[in-house]
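Handoff note, outgoing to incoming analyst
You'll be picking up this chain. Sequence as last confirmed:
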Amino acid sequence: MSVKKLFGKNITPSCEYCQFSVKKKGGNTICRYSIPSEDRVCKKYIYDPLKREPKNTPNIPRFSPEDFIL
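Most recent structure output, in case you need it:
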């Protein structure tokens, strides 16, 4: 049985998605073990899919009953 990843296989590691990170009110991410930076991730990095914020949903076109008449 294969397991499908929630957001795909190619996820770039980021401190924002780490299990050990904490997001403060100002939008800053604080790590419990090291100082977070943009270009590297510490050795304790563990991906947490629940910390990802979903993108905006695309606009779905509205259909009328006339669109389905043959």
